[in-house]
Specification:
alpha/beta; eight-stranded parallel barrel; 14 helices; disordered C terminus; binds phosphoenolpyruvate
Length: 267
Protein backbone atom coordinates (compact mmCIF):
# COMPACT_ATOMS: atom_id res chain seq x y z
CA UNK A 1 0.00 0.00 0.00
CA UNK A 2 1.29 3.48 -0.86
CA UNK A 3 2.09 5.84 1.97
CA UNK A 4 -0.56 8.34 3.08
CA UNK A 5 -0.45 11.78 1.48
CA UNK A 6 -0.64 14.70 3.91
CA UNK A 7 -1.40 17.80 1.83
CA UNK A 8 -1.77 21.47 2.71
CA UNK A 9 -3.81 24.01 0.73
CA UNK A 10 -2.76 27.54 1.56
CA UNK A 11 -5.56 29.13 -0.49
CA UNK A 12 -4.86 32.89 -0.93
CA UNK A 13 -2.54 33.22 2.05
CA UNK A 14 1.18 34.07 2.34
CA UNK A 15 3.56 36.25 0.35
CA UNK A 16 6.84 34.87 -1.03
CA UNK A 17 8.66 36.16 2.08
CA UNK A 18 6.12 34.49 4.38
CA UNK A 19 6.50 31.32 2.32
CA UNK A 20 10.25 31.42 2.88
CA UNK A 21 9.74 31.85 6.64
CA UNK A 22 7.27 28.95 6.76
CA UNK A 23 9.75 26.51 5.23
CA UNK A 24 12.62 27.71 7.39
CA UNK A 25 10.67 26.22 10.34
CA UNK A 26 8.66 23.47 8.70
CA UNK A 27 11.46 21.61 6.89
CA UNK A 28 13.29 20.92 10.13
CA UNK A 29 10.10 19.75 11.87
CA UNK A 30 9.39 17.08 9.25
CA UNK A 31 12.92 16.17 8.20
CA UNK A 32 12.69 12.67 9.71
CA UNK A 33 9.23 11.84 8.37
CA UNK A 34 9.15 8.64 6.31
CA UNK A 35 5.66 7.24 7.01
CA UNK A 36 3.85 9.61 4.62
CA UNK A 37 4.31 11.93 1.68
CA UNK A 38 4.06 15.66 2.33
CA UNK A 39 2.62 18.15 -0.15
CA UNK A 40 2.03 21.87 0.14
CA UNK A 41 0.00 23.88 -2.37
CA UNK A 42 0.77 27.62 -2.04
CA UNK A 43 -0.65 30.42 -4.20
CA UNK A 44 0.81 30.56 -7.73
CA UNK A 45 3.03 33.53 -6.96
CA UNK A 46 4.76 31.58 -4.16
CA UNK A 47 5.42 28.38 -6.11
CA UNK A 48 8.99 29.16 -7.14
CA UNK A 49 9.93 30.28 -3.64
CA UNK A 50 8.36 27.13 -2.19
CA UNK A 51 10.10 24.84 -4.67
CA UNK A 52 13.47 26.47 -3.99
CA UNK A 53 12.91 26.29 -0.22
CA UNK A 54 12.20 22.54 -0.38
CA UNK A 55 14.96 21.33 -2.70
CA UNK A 56 16.47 18.15 -1.22
CA UNK A 57 13.76 17.82 1.41
CA UNK A 58 10.85 15.38 1.71
CA UNK A 59 8.31 18.13 0.98
CA UNK A 60 6.69 18.34 -2.45
CA UNK A 61 5.00 21.42 -3.90
CA UNK A 62 1.78 21.65 -5.90
CA UNK A 63 -0.37 24.37 -7.44
CA UNK A 64 -3.99 25.15 -6.53
CA UNK A 65 -5.37 25.41 -10.06
CA UNK A 66 -4.41 25.38 -13.73
CA UNK A 67 -5.84 26.44 -17.05
CA UNK A 68 -6.50 23.53 -19.42
CA UNK A 69 -4.44 24.75 -22.36
CA UNK A 70 -0.73 24.65 -23.14
CA UNK A 71 -0.37 28.41 -23.77
CA UNK A 72 -2.33 31.23 -25.37
CA UNK A 73 -4.22 34.45 -24.89
CA UNK A 74 -5.71 33.63 -21.49
CA UNK A 75 -4.84 36.63 -19.34
CA UNK A 76 -4.25 35.79 -15.71
CA UNK A 77 -4.09 32.03 -16.16
CA UNK A 78 -1.26 29.51 -15.75
CA UNK A 79 -0.80 26.22 -17.61
CA UNK A 80 0.19 22.78 -16.42
CA UNK A 81 3.43 23.09 -18.36
CA UNK A 82 4.33 26.27 -16.44
CA UNK A 83 3.51 24.62 -13.12
CA UNK A 84 5.55 21.56 -13.98
CA UNK A 85 8.53 23.57 -15.18
CA UNK A 86 8.43 25.58 -11.93
CA UNK A 87 9.26 22.28 -10.17
CA UNK A 88 5.81 21.27 -8.93
CA UNK A 89 4.45 17.72 -9.06
CA UNK A 90 0.76 18.08 -8.10
CA UNK A 91 -2.16 20.39 -8.76
CA UNK A 92 -5.49 20.75 -6.96
CA UNK A 93 -8.50 20.58 -9.25
CA UNK A 94 -12.17 21.33 -8.60
CA UNK A 95 -11.75 22.64 -5.05
CA UNK A 96 -15.16 23.63 -3.71
CA UNK A 97 -14.09 27.27 -3.57
CA UNK A 98 -13.32 27.14 -7.31
CA UNK A 99 -16.62 25.43 -8.00
CA UNK A 100 -18.52 27.92 -5.88
CA UNK A 101 -16.85 31.28 -6.57
CA UNK A 102 -15.50 30.64 -10.09
CA UNK A 103 -18.35 28.45 -11.30
CA UNK A 104 -16.23 25.46 -12.21
CA UNK A 105 -18.23 22.51 -13.45
CA UNK A 106 -17.56 18.79 -13.61
CA UNK A 107 -16.74 19.29 -17.32
CA UNK A 108 -14.06 21.85 -16.34
CA UNK A 109 -12.72 19.37 -13.79
CA UNK A 110 -12.40 16.73 -16.51
CA UNK A 111 -10.57 19.10 -18.90
CA UNK A 112 -8.24 20.29 -16.16
CA UNK A 113 -7.52 16.76 -14.98
CA UNK A 114 -6.53 15.69 -18.49
CA UNK A 115 -4.40 18.84 -18.93
CA UNK A 116 -2.63 18.19 -15.63
CA UNK A 117 -1.87 14.60 -16.55
CA UNK A 118 -0.59 15.64 -19.97
CA UNK A 119 1.75 18.10 -18.25
CA UNK A 120 3.09 15.33 -16.00
CA UNK A 121 1.35 16.58 -12.85
CA UNK A 122 -0.64 14.49 -10.37
CA UNK A 123 -4.16 15.94 -10.12
CA UNK A 124 -5.74 16.06 -6.66
CA UNK A 125 -9.40 16.21 -7.63
CA UNK A 126 -11.80 17.52 -4.97
CA UNK A 127 -15.41 16.39 -4.58
CA UNK A 128 -17.93 16.93 -1.81
CA UNK A 129 -21.49 17.86 -0.93
CA UNK A 130 -23.00 21.01 0.61
CA UNK A 131 -24.94 20.84 3.89
CA UNK A 132 -28.39 20.86 2.26
CA UNK A 133 -27.38 17.92 0.07
CA UNK A 134 -26.17 15.95 3.10
CA UNK A 135 -29.26 16.82 5.12
CA UNK A 136 -31.45 15.95 2.15
CA UNK A 137 -29.88 12.49 1.91
CA UNK A 138 -28.24 13.35 -1.42
CA UNK A 139 -24.57 12.87 -0.55
CA UNK A 140 -24.14 9.65 -2.51
CA UNK A 141 -25.92 11.08 -5.56
CA UNK A 142 -23.69 14.19 -5.52
CA UNK A 143 -20.46 12.23 -5.11
CA UNK A 144 -21.39 9.84 -7.90
CA UNK A 145 -22.35 12.74 -10.20
CA UNK A 146 -19.09 14.60 -9.50
CA UNK A 147 -17.05 11.43 -9.91
CA UNK A 148 -18.72 10.41 -13.19
CA UNK A 149 -18.75 13.96 -14.60
CA UNK A 150 -15.20 14.87 -13.60
CA UNK A 151 -13.38 11.57 -13.91
CA UNK A 152 -15.61 8.98 -15.55
CA UNK A 153 -14.24 9.53 -19.06
CA UNK A 154 -10.57 9.20 -18.16
CA UNK A 155 -8.65 6.22 -19.51
CA UNK A 156 -7.57 3.54 -17.05
CA UNK A 157 -3.97 4.76 -17.30
CA UNK A 158 -5.00 8.33 -16.56
CA UNK A 159 -7.16 7.24 -13.65
CA UNK A 160 -4.27 5.32 -12.10
CA UNK A 161 -2.30 8.57 -11.73
CA UNK A 162 -4.70 10.70 -9.77
CA UNK A 163 -5.68 11.39 -6.19
CA UNK A 164 -9.23 12.21 -5.07
CA UNK A 165 -9.99 14.43 -2.07
CA UNK A 166 -13.37 14.09 -0.38
CA UNK A 167 -14.13 17.49 1.12
CA UNK A 168 -17.65 17.93 2.50
CA UNK A 169 -18.21 21.62 1.88
CA UNK A 170 -20.00 22.08 5.21
CA UNK A 171 -16.75 21.08 6.94
CA UNK A 172 -14.35 23.37 5.04
CA UNK A 173 -13.13 26.30 7.09
CA UNK A 174 -16.07 25.92 9.48
CA UNK A 175 -14.41 24.04 12.32
CA UNK A 176 -16.93 21.21 11.78
CA UNK A 177 -15.12 18.01 10.94
CA UNK A 178 -16.91 15.03 9.45
CA UNK A 179 -16.95 12.17 11.95
CA UNK A 180 -14.52 9.40 10.97
CA UNK A 181 -17.57 7.29 10.01
CA UNK A 182 -19.08 9.99 7.77
CA UNK A 183 -15.72 10.44 6.05
CA UNK A 184 -15.08 6.71 5.70
CA UNK A 185 -18.58 6.08 4.31
CA UNK A 186 -18.15 8.83 1.70
CA UNK A 187 -14.75 7.43 0.74
CA UNK A 188 -16.33 3.99 0.36
CA UNK A 189 -19.00 5.50 -1.94
CA UNK A 190 -16.31 7.06 -4.13
CA UNK A 191 -14.31 3.84 -4.18
CA UNK A 192 -17.39 1.81 -5.08
CA UNK A 193 -18.07 4.14 -8.01
CA UNK A 194 -14.43 3.95 -9.06
CA UNK A 195 -14.72 0.15 -9.06
CA UNK A 196 -17.79 0.29 -11.31
CA UNK A 197 -16.04 2.50 -13.85
CA UNK A 198 -12.38 1.41 -13.66
CA UNK A 199 -12.47 -2.01 -11.97
CA UNK A 200 -11.86 -3.15 -8.43
CA UNK A 201 -8.08 -3.24 -8.59
CA UNK A 202 -7.88 0.40 -9.79
CA UNK A 203 -10.41 1.41 -7.14
CA UNK A 204 -8.43 -0.31 -4.40
CA UNK A 205 -5.26 1.55 -5.40
CA UNK A 206 -7.02 4.94 -5.56
CA UNK A 207 -5.80 7.33 -2.91
CA UNK A 208 -8.67 9.23 -1.31
CA UNK A 209 -7.84 12.10 1.04
CA UNK A 210 -10.23 13.62 3.57
CA UNK A 211 -10.45 17.41 3.86
CA UNK A 212 -12.53 19.66 6.11
CA UNK A 213 -11.30 21.25 9.35
CA UNK A 214 -8.53 18.72 9.90
CA UNK A 215 -6.50 19.80 12.93
CA UNK A 216 -3.69 18.27 15.00
CA UNK A 217 -6.22 16.98 17.55
CA UNK A 218 -8.54 15.18 15.12
CA UNK A 219 -6.14 13.91 12.48
CA UNK A 220 -5.34 10.74 14.47
CA UNK A 221 -8.91 9.42 14.57
CA UNK A 222 -9.45 10.28 10.93
CA UNK A 223 -6.25 8.56 9.81
CA UNK A 224 -7.20 5.49 11.86
CA UNK A 225 -9.90 4.79 9.27
CA UNK A 226 -8.69 2.32 6.69
CA UNK A 227 -10.60 4.16 3.97
CA UNK A 228 -8.72 7.43 4.57
CA UNK A 229 -5.43 7.56 2.69
CA UNK A 230 -4.36 11.02 3.75
CA UNK A 231 -5.71 14.51 4.36
CA UNK A 232 -6.08 17.84 2.59
CA UNK A 233 -5.72 20.62 5.11
CA UNK A 234 -6.56 24.31 4.70
CA UNK A 235 -6.34 26.57 7.77
CA UNK A 236 -4.18 24.26 9.90
CA UNK A 237 -1.53 23.99 7.17
CA UNK A 238 -0.63 27.68 7.42
CA UNK A 239 1.30 27.34 10.64
CA UNK A 240 4.48 25.23 10.44
CA UNK A 241 4.07 23.59 13.83
CA UNK A 242 0.39 22.86 13.38
CA UNK A 243 0.93 21.22 9.99
CA UNK A 244 4.00 19.36 11.27
CA UNK A 245 1.83 17.90 14.07
CA UNK A 246 -0.69 16.78 11.46
CA UNK A 247 2.04 15.19 9.37
CA UNK A 248 3.33 13.46 12.52
CA UNK A 249 -0.16 12.20 13.45
CA UNK A 250 1.13 8.77 14.45
CA UNK A 251 3.26 9.97 17.30
CA UNK A 252 2.33 13.56 17.88
CA UNK A 253 2.79 13.14 21.68
CA UNK A 254 6.36 12.06 21.23
CA UNK A 255 6.77 14.68 18.53
CA UNK A 256 5.58 17.39 20.91
CA UNK A 257 7.97 16.29 23.64
CA UNK A 258 10.88 16.56 21.25
CA UNK A 259 9.94 20.01 19.92
CA UNK A 260 9.83 22.24 23.02
CA UNK A 261 11.12 25.35 21.28
CA UNK A 262 8.69 25.27 18.43
CA UNK A 263 5.81 24.53 20.78
CA UNK A 264 6.62 27.51 22.96
CA UNK A 265 6.94 29.57 19.81
CA UNK A 266 3.44 28.78 18.68
CA UNK A 267 1.81 29.98 21.88
C1 LIG B 1 -9.42 23.07 2.20
O1 LIG B 1 -9.18 24.23 1.92
O2 LIG B 1 -9.33 22.20 1.32
C2 LIG B 1 -9.82 22.74 3.57
C3 LIG B 1 -10.13 21.51 3.86
O3 LIG B 1 -9.83 23.77 4.48
P1 LIG B 1 -9.94 23.66 6.10
O4 LIG B 1 -8.95 22.58 6.52
O5 LIG B 1 -9.56 24.99 6.59
O6 LIG B 1 -11.34 23.25 6.42
Amino acid sequence: MTRPLMAGNWKMYKTPTETQHFFEKFNALVADVRHCEILICPPALDLTTAVEATIQTNVAIGAQNLYPGKEGAFTGEISGRMIKSAGCCHVLIGHSERRRYFHETDANVFEKTVAALEAGLTPVVCVGEVLEEREGGKTEEVLVRQFRGGLGELTADQFAELVVAYEPIWAIGTGKTATPKIAADAHATIRKEAAKVFGSSAAKSLRILYGGSVKPDNVGILMAQEEINGVLVGGASLDPLSFAKIVNYRNSDRFLETQPHQLMHSR
